[in-house]
Amino acid sequence: MLNSLLSQYTRSLILVAVLLLIVILEVLEVRAAIYPGLLPFFEWARSSSWLGLIGTTYGSIYATVEAVHLLSMAVIGGTVLATDLRLLGVVFRDLPSETLTKGTHKVFSAALISAIATGIFCAAGVGDKVYYMEVFWIKMLALVAGSLFVFLVKQPLLNSMPHDEINPWTIRLLAVTSLLIWFTVAATGRWIGFS
Amino acid sequence: MNQFIFDIAVMLDNTQWSTLLHESYYMYNWVESTHVLTLVLCLGMLFLIDLRMLGYAFPGVPASSIADRLNMPMLIGFIVMFITGILLFYAVPVRTSQSVWFRFKMVLLVAAAVNAFMFHKRMNESVSTWDNDAKAPSAVRMGAILSLTFWSIIVIFGRFIAYDWFDCEYTDAGSLSQLLSGCINGQAQF
Amino acid sequence: MDNEKKMTDKEITAIGAGVAILGSLLFYWFGQFISTIELLELAYGSLNFFNNPLTF
Questions:
Q1: Which of A193, B55, B95, B99 allows an S-S link to B135, with CB 3.0 to 4.6 Å?
Q2: How many A×B Cβ pairs under 8 Å?
Q3: Where are the domains of chain C?
Q4: How many CB atoms lie within 10 A of CB C21?
Q5: Chain centroid, CA A46 distance in Å
Q6: Cβ separation of A153 and C13 shorter than 8 Å?
Q7: Domain residue spans of chain B
């Protein structure tokens, strides 16, 4: 009985475990305990790592990488909008959403890798600044949650069966969550520059 | 010509709304964030179309159906970027009008517009013959590559406007960058 | 029958993760909205969307 439950609902049980783990870590205030220990790493990234040294010495390289980061964001956002608005039935209604989802996912993955790579460079150049910014950590949290959500939850479900066999409300929930989470990643990123 | 641009910029700078926008608590940041985040709508869609023409995205979907469906969100994005872009210029007119990056960016925008016009013309003429091919014919591919290049440089130069490397007050009188920026007392006002 | 079809493991995970993430995001943005309003009230004293004791 237990065995069949475990094998039949592995993913759901892992999700429950992860959510529980987050709650426990919060209650035990693990975040506050780890936070001071991260400072040396960020200071090292800013003043001693190669990335930080290049970023702080050559302003033009830093600005160009920032621009590439923005371009990657544009492609990520474009694929997210095309996919999720199709899932919500706003655009591309004549194209099967299975085809579109598969097509955009490849482009999305490539752009996400490019955005993360350029993002690490940008963050390294201002490591001692972003460390103290709440909005930076919100962005990191949203980025991790968004990546796990897309690669481990959304794509597996959408690839596992024809979309019209999935409850339409589940699809809508997936689309809205994905739209909002990537919007959050982009908007908090823009706000890092203002503070 | 530079004097004329300068006079207009000073006139804009002297209006009350320009100061309000520049010095508001959040409004300038919100306008700028909207400008940057709308990249997603405008360039995201444009790049998907271009990547389709080059055969990198959705090779199995007819090119015209990608182009037709994504055109509308792209245009909406472009209009929003255009309006917020004008507002950003309006908030800081004197410095921006004498930024060499801003000037390059405007030239590239015109080039991108010409390219877009030709791209559409070529595409509408011949799309029926290659609609289902993974790659578009070389003339259309060329247009797609040009569009990707122009817009990438536009984004890079747009980012550069925020930096002061070639601001008039930091460059030598008579230098090339002063000539290109058309420096007339660029830092005296915003 | 459609109604009797059991939901798959992947779909349950999707609903659970979706609700959790969407909920936290909405909570975050609502909090941002409130704190922005309060800050603008403090700065300008003119916005009164909520009855904030800090403004007179």
A1: B55
A2: 107
A3: 24-51
A4: 22
A5: 23
A6: yes
A7: 2-181
